Amino acid sequence: MNLRQRNSGASADADLPLRSAGRDARGTPEHVAAAIVRRILQRRYKPGERITEIEVGKAFEVGRSTVREAVRILSASGVIEATRHRGAAICVLTEADCRDLLDVIEVLLGLAARSAARNIEFGDNRPRLNRVAQVLGQRHIARDLRNVLEERLDFYAVMLSIAANRELDRALPAARAQIFRAQFYEHLTDDDLRAMISEYRGIAAAILEGDERKAERRMREHVARTGDRLMPRVFKHWRKSA
Questions:
Q1: In this predicted structure, what is the pLDDT of residue 237?
Q2: Given the DSSP bridges, would you call strands 50-51 and 80-83 parallel, antiparallel or unpaired?
Q3: Which residue, of 50, 66, 90, is where some domain finishes?
Q4: pTM for the whole thing?
């Protein structure tokens, strides 16, 4: 099968899939690691929060060796910082971490949007993207704006699936991106969320048009604007890139 015809398999969290492969996978270190990332996204684990082997073992009904391996996986992904004698804690992103992360995500998600636009006519790619675009296009009243945080994950999952680039899936620092979302969630305003909705609609429209350059440009602009919206509220030395 041509990679451009692949309709599934990629996700917004491709390096740490959040969906288990099945019941038998629930006790594996990979599943536990993915579940911890999901809890970060759900803000059940917060950046800087310490986690213990006992707590994680009880939460997921696994043994200590499984927990240790899950922590090793997350440490390698930059999600958990494990130090001797102090245990493990969810990483907190510094200003430099955020700048580096946004620079990488901007390029890679721009490539994903370009690839999705190139592949939009294959299989059922167009109706799938249309469905998530329609959800983003619905009128969001103030109390519903936070739903955008979940809806955008569906948008990214479908876009990456349509992009159908396994190397891109591997390269995306998706787990670190979840820390970014969790760490700056409280700094999002309703105006931020409305702006994000408008930007996602523009990206989706460019992909549906099959306009590769426009799709890439709009995605990269969205990521850059995300940094410019949020970072000055947290880091006083943040400067807009030239």
A1: 62
A2: unpaired
A3: 90
A4: 0.78
30, 98: one domain? no
| Sign of CA pseudo-dihedral 97, 98, 99, 103 | positive
Question: What are the residue ranges in the chain where pLDDT is below 50?
Answer: 1-23, 141-143, 241-242
* Tokens found for residue 69: 């391996």
Please report, in angstroms and rounded to a whole number, the separation of the first and last CA atoms in the chain: 42
Residue position matching structure tokens 């950046």: 47
In whole angstroms, what is the distance from residue 46 CA to residue 68 CA? 20
The token duo for 167 is 């190397």
Q: What sign does the CA torsion over 190, 196, 197, 198 have?
A: positive
- Write down the residue that tokens 């995605």 correspond to: 219
Whether residues 104 and 182 share a domain: the answer is yes
What is the residue range of 76's domain?
23-90
| DSSP sequence for 8-40 | SS--TTTTS-SS-S-GGGTTSHHHHHHHHHHHH
Task: Quote the distance between the C-alpha of residue 218 and its chain's center.
Answer: 18
How far is it, in rounded angstroms, from Cα 29 to Cα 79? 14
Closest CA to 181 of 43, 50, 36: 43
Confidence at residue 145, expressed as pLDDT on a 0 to 100 scale: 56
